[in-house]
């Protein structure tokens, strides 16, 4: 990930979390009020052509797209969450917390008694630390006994 992508993720984190929660809650009702036709309508010929005329199939496709969007949001949010442990400085932790809550740099500066430009420098430091390549498994030391071992093959 580059710095711009990390900055965008930090900026979008709050609304992504809210969207994930709302979409999960609303999508758990999947299938309610969607019924297939019964009786004579079920055997009648359906419209031909490029589009799908079945409202149940359309709704299923729409919901599938929304689930895919939720999965994308979750992946982005997880990327930030997996790297939070890299931030150890107290000021950086506080700024990161408020950024993830969706607060502006000016609001954070006012809250912490700092100028918004100083908060911006702290944010840049956070982005630099998060941008560093991190292994997929958090808190794993870079050098392990496995890395030093030679292959017998």
TrEMBL record:
Keywords of the record: Transcription, Transcription regulation
Keyword Metal-binding set for record: no
Protein's GO biological process: regulation of DNA-templated transcription
Any Pfam family matching the protein: GerE
Gene3D superfamilies linked: Winged helix-like DNA-binding domain superfamily/Winged helix DNA-binding domain (1.10.10.10)
Keyword Transcription regulation appears in the UniProt entry: yes
Single GO term (MF): DNA binding
Coiled-coil region: none
Transmembrane segments: none
All copies of domain HTH luxR-type, residue ranges: 90-132
Protein known as: Regulatory protein, luxR family
High-level lineage: Bacteria, Bacillati, Bacillota, Bacilli, Bacillales
């Amino acid at each position: 990930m580059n710095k711009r992508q990390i900055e965008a993720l930090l900026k979008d984190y709050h609304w992504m979390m809210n969207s994930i929660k709302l979409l999960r809650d609303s999508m758990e009702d999947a299938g309610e009020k969607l019924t297939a036709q019964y009786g004579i309508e079920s055997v009648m010929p359906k419209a031909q052509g490029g589009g799908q005329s079945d409202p149940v199939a359309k709704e299923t496709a729409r919901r599938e797209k929304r689930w895919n969007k939720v999965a994308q949001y979750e992946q982005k949010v997880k990327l930030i969450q997996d790297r939070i442990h890299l931030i150890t400085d107290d000021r950086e932790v506080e700024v990161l917390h408020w950024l993830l809550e969706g607060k502006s740099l000016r609001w954070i500066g006012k809250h912490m008694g700092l100028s918004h430009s100083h908060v911006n420098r702290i944010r840049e430091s956070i982005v630099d630390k998060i941008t560093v390549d991190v292994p997929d498994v958090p808190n794993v030391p870079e050098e392990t006994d496995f890395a030093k071992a030679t292959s017998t093959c």
